[in-house]
Amino acid sequence: MSTETTPPIRLPKVLREGDDAGAIDVLQEYFTRKVVKTGHLRSGARWDGWDPSGRRTADADIFTADDFVAITALSVEVPPEGAWIMLTERHAELNRMLAAVGPDRDLADEAGAKTAESPEWQLENALREIHGIGWTTASKLIARKRPRLFPIYDDVVGRTLDTRKAHLEPVRRAMRDDDRALHHRLLDLRDRAGLDQNVPALRILDVLAWMQGKNYQPKPGSGVAGV
Known about the structure:
It contains ten helices and no strands. By secondary structure, the protein is mainly α.
């Protein structure tokens, strides 16, 4: 069982080894390099800034059809029945729960533990009650609305970070440890990789973990460490 004296997560290898050039290469591979087979960027590279309706900020406390399209960039979807439930019979309830989470803010600034009583946890459980929405899809829906606060989960990331039993609270602890050292380091890597400011620290951690889980081998010589 985890305690406050044990590491809350297992960091991706590039972070454990202090391989900044490797980490930067991973981020550039994911966000800025075209996939050879398709000639296009990864769909996930469009996730963070995707806002075709221009209403993402205005709809921060409202689940919309835009959110269902957005999560397809991360290879999940809400099936038609689940979408109907979310946008009709449970729409007002879920929107109230989303608003109760409060505005988006950095998870590293959350001093209190995230427990079953936390609004984020309650919203996640409510989403998972809906047909076709599991842990992964629920996490991506909430991360779409609160990208700085709520970490994305899937099996690949869970295996890499060793968070398959619990994800939100271990990640929160990791981001706060040592005066938010990991949070600041992830933002520094983002900036040095030349990524947009709208990519939050949690997303940097997610991508580094996911790419490791997918067996991408960083090429340190191609990074831009030190820029």
